[in-house]
Design a protein that fits this description.
mainly alpha; 82% helix
Length: 118
């Protein structure tokens, strides 16, 4: 079980890093595809709390910034409000994806992940 959890976490982290690289290169469609795959793995029943917690730590490392307004906002809101914001941003990302606005979709999805991270 431990090996399968490490394999799942490795796949999620690999997809997340790949998405970040593609985003920085301007390949927004590839970036959103990788993020959606990682998100699908995260929401599957094979992911437990340990995997999600390690994923959050990785997101914190990826998105750490000296001037992070989302981090400041997260300190002022409770968990319920944070989850509402994440769901709203994920929905916005799906809507943008339907209209083939890949850049807008990945930006909304990344913003949702920032609220999800530690």
């Amino acid at each position: 079980m431990k090996d399968s959890n490490e394999l799942i976490l490795g796949n999620i982290l690999k997809l997340t890093r790949s998405s970040e690289k593609k985003f920085k290169q301007g390949n927004f469609k590839g970036a959103i595809d990788d993020k959606m795959k990682a998100n699908a793995i995260l929401k599957s029943k094979s992911c437990d709390e340990k995997i999600i917690e390690k994923y959050r730590e990785e997101l914190s490392r990826l998105y750490s910034s000296k001037f992070d307004l989302i981090f400041d906002h997260k300190l002022k809101i409770d968990e319920i409000k944070r989850n509402q914001i994440v769901k709203m941003l994920e929905q916005k990302s799906k809507e943008k994806l339907k209209s083939l606005d890949y850049k807008g979709a990945i930006k909304a999805f990344r913003r949702a992940e920032k609220y999800f991270s530690n």
